[in-house]
Design goal:
The complex is a heterodimer. Chain A is mainly α. Chain A contains 4 helices and no strands. In chain A, 60% of the residues lie in helices and 0% in strands. The chains are: A mainly alpha, B alpha/beta.
Chain lengths: 80, 599
């Protein structure tokens, strides 16, 4: 999947999960940039992202992602 | 809200949880407020998020207390100031097979495993008893789901050293406790996890990363199942099932195909599916669900279809049959009026999406499950949890009996010229006495449910009722009425508090089920007797009008009280001197608690 589509769809998921239409994610976005993104919301977010792209992250991937860019790269590589 | 009704899209709910909550809160409806404490053995945050949504959708606005991570035992046994001040109306204990401290090993003897099991049970039992003592409120406890691996393979379930075997035995012990303790309910996660798919449910990454005992996808289903118990406890169950006929209770259209042409019975797979559905519906009736028909048909065709020799349901099974060409929303509203229930207590089952849409749009609060194909009818009705059974009151189980008994009483009434003769023929016996523990839950429930025959509309929480029951400041009576057609259960509650030689009445309620049976006079006689014995000279009654309690505006007047005052809003105060009180009940034989305790 091309990376532009990945970001467009990721952005939609972020807006849904955090119920905030002003969100615009970039490769550098981290939990510090979004007010409601705490460890509990993180679980919901991971779940929604995996559903959106019909991919399953491994435990190791989830625990090593540092920002949205790393997440998007995994998705771009794996999602059809 | 359609998005939150079964079968719902969990993925959508997970993603849209925040906006769903916003929409629910913005609909301006008035909801029941309840405080629920969640004692978790694993992370409970998301469980509470979805529980909140499903409860809001069922008309319950809950405030939650959640234990710190995995502190369920400590919270229950050594409640903090915060928790005590919170004073929950209900406690939910979210434990799972991850919370078992000791599992049997292959080195253990049978006796050691038995001891281990007893110790585990003691821990839970102590906790439940402590909660009951502290909050006097209903408890919901998870049973155990099966573990995600089987060390011994198939033998794990039958060998006493197997985890499956151990968990199954623990579950059995939980059920025994539930059987013997009113107000204790099992949240059957063993079933829900199996139905969801244990493999996915128990994905260990959710435990290892987030300390969730189940995968996040499964949480909406988990919470929905839990919400069904809660709304059932708070009287939000549906009461009646209104069924379409053609292509709902049988295949085909009886008006076109004729009775011989409809599909019902054992001949084909399709007719067997309809037969199975009819059987399911018939079983619902035995739970106290009122069955009615709502069908666009000529009346005689409808009856002919229901009399099909291969069908499981017969016209007699339905309290009301609306088979006509009126719009279905009007028929549903009329059904509600005739049954004397609210339209939102009805579930409407119809295979036609257009009819479902009209009813959903026109009748506020009515439940309209998807009925897309006959093989899904049972599952969609069943999982919807519309008629979830909780043992809070045995009345639900007896509802059909009561309806029938009422019909018989009415028939008998018609055959008597004199109403007094009729009352005599009912051979009524009442138990009227001070509260006893076995009825306390029913008594509390009645104070929260009665709207019409209720002079003060004072509500009591279980804790408040417990305090009333234990205090020497009150004169309390409950009344239970039995007649030759059946036991009506506890139907009346009276509470007054003593101030010197005066008894101020806090509460006088009665179930409308026993109107015009002279039960209120039997209660009054007993009240007068008990008051005199306590040195009371005067009873003061109060009437506070609401939208619903007009029928008791003059209750104290009919009792022979004198009206002392009445303000502009219609609040009135009444007085009765007990000097020379004459008993008023003529038709009911009255007994006291010894008749119950001795039995």
């Amino acid at each position: 999947m091309d990376i532009k589509t990945v970001y467009a769809r990721l952005n939609k998921v972020f807006r849904d999960v955090f119920d905030d239409n002003s969100i615009s994610v970039t490769p550098k976005t981290t939990a510090n940039d979004i007010e409601d993104w705490d460890s509990l919301e993180h679980i919901t977010l991971m779940n929604a992202v995996q559903k959106e792209f019909k991919v399953k992250f491994t435990m190791k991937e989830i625990s090593s992602m540092k920002n949205v860019g790393e997440m998007a790269n995994i998705i771009a590589e794996r999602a059809k | 809200m359609k998005e939150l009704e079964y079968p719902f899209d969990s993925e959508y709910i997970i993603k849209k949880r925040k906006s769903l909550k916003r929409q629910l809160l913005a609909d301006g409806s008035k909801r029941l407020k309840k405080k629920i404490a969640v004692f978790g053995g694993s992370t409970t945050n998301d469980i509470v998020v979805y529980l909140d949504l499903f409860l809001l959708d069922q008309g319950i606005e809950a405030e939650f207390y959640q234990s710190e991570y995995a502190q369920y035992w400590q919270d229950a046994m050594f409640p903090s100031e915060e928790l005590l001040n919170f004073a929950p109306d209900m406690v939910f204990i979210h434990t799972t097979n991850r919370n078992i401290l000791n599992y049997p090993t292959t080195a253990d003897s049978r006796e050691q495993v038995d001891k281990m099991l007893e110790a585990e049970m003691d821990k839970f039992r102590q906790m439940w008893e402590k909660i009951k003592e502290t909050y006097h409120c209903p408890i919901i406890q998870n049973n155990f789901e099966m573990p995600f691996y089987r060390l011994m393979g198939n033998k794990d379930c039958s060998d006493y050293r197997g985890r499956l075997n151990y968990l199954t035995r623990l579950n059995e012990e939980f059920y025994k406790y539930a059987e013997n303790n009113e107000g204790f309910y099992i949240n059957d996660i063993n079933y829900i996890s199996a139905s969801f798919g244990l493999r996915q449910w128990s994905d260990p990454s959710y435990w290892n990363m987030y300390k969730y005992a189940m995968c996040v996808d499964a949480i909406p289903e988990f919470s929905f199942n839990l919400a069904n118990i809660i709304k059932s406890v708070y009287g939000k169950n549906k009461k009646a099932l209104a069924l379409d006929l053609d292509n709902t209770l049988w295949g085909g259209v009886v008006g076109d195909d004729g009775v011989d042409g409809i599909q019902i019975g054992q001949e084909t797979g399709v007719s067997q599916s309809y037969y199975e559905f009819q059987n399911y519906v018939k079983s619902l009736k035995s739970l106290g669900v009122i069955l009615t028909v709502c069908s666009k048909n000529d009346h005689e065709n409808a009856i002919a279809g229901l009399n099909h020799p291969e069908g499981a349901l017969k016209p007699d099974d339905f309290i009301i049959i609306k088979a006509n060409w009126e719009n279905k929303d009007r028929n549903i509203l009329e059904t509600a009026r005739e049954l004397n229930i609210m339209p939102d207590a009805i579930v409407f089952a119809d295979d036609n999406p257009a009819e479902r849409e009209i009813v959903r749009a026109q009748v506020s609060g009515v439940a309209v499950p998807e009925m897309d194909s006959v093989e899904n009818y049972i599952i969609n009705l069943d999982r919807g949890g519309y008629f979830e059974v909780t043992n809070f009151s045995a009345d639900d189980l007896k509802r059909n009996e009561m309806y029938k008994a009422n019909a018989e009483r009415m028939a008998q009434q018609a055959s008597f010229a004199d109403y007094g003769e009729y009352l005599k023929s009912l051979e009524m016996t009442a138990v009227i006495d001070d509260f006893i523990p076995v009825y306390l839950q029913r008594i509390t429930q009645l104070t929260n449910k009665s709207n019409q025959f209720n002079v003060t509309t004072k509500r009591y929480t279980p804790t408040e009722m417990e305090e009333v029951a234990e205090s020497g400041e009150y004169i309390r009576l409950y009344g239970k009425l039995i007649d030759k057609f059946g036991d009506n259960g506890v139907v009346s509650v009276v509470i007054g508090h003593k101030s010197g030689e005066v008894l101020d009445m806090d509460l006088w309620i009665m179930s409308c089920r026993v109107l015009k049976r002279d039960m209120e006079f039997a209660m009054l006689d007993r009240l007068a007797e008990r008051s005199k014995a306590a040195g009371i000279k005067t009873i003061k009654g109060y009437y506070y009008p609401t939208a619903k309690n007009k029928m008791v505006k003059d209750l104290y007047g009919t009792f022979g009280f004198t009206k002392v005052s009445e303000d502009d809003e219609g609040n009135s105060v009444w007085e009765l001197s007990l000097d020379g009180y004459e008993p008023k009940n003529r038709f009911i034989r009255v007994e006291d608690n010894s008749s119950i305790i001795n039995n």
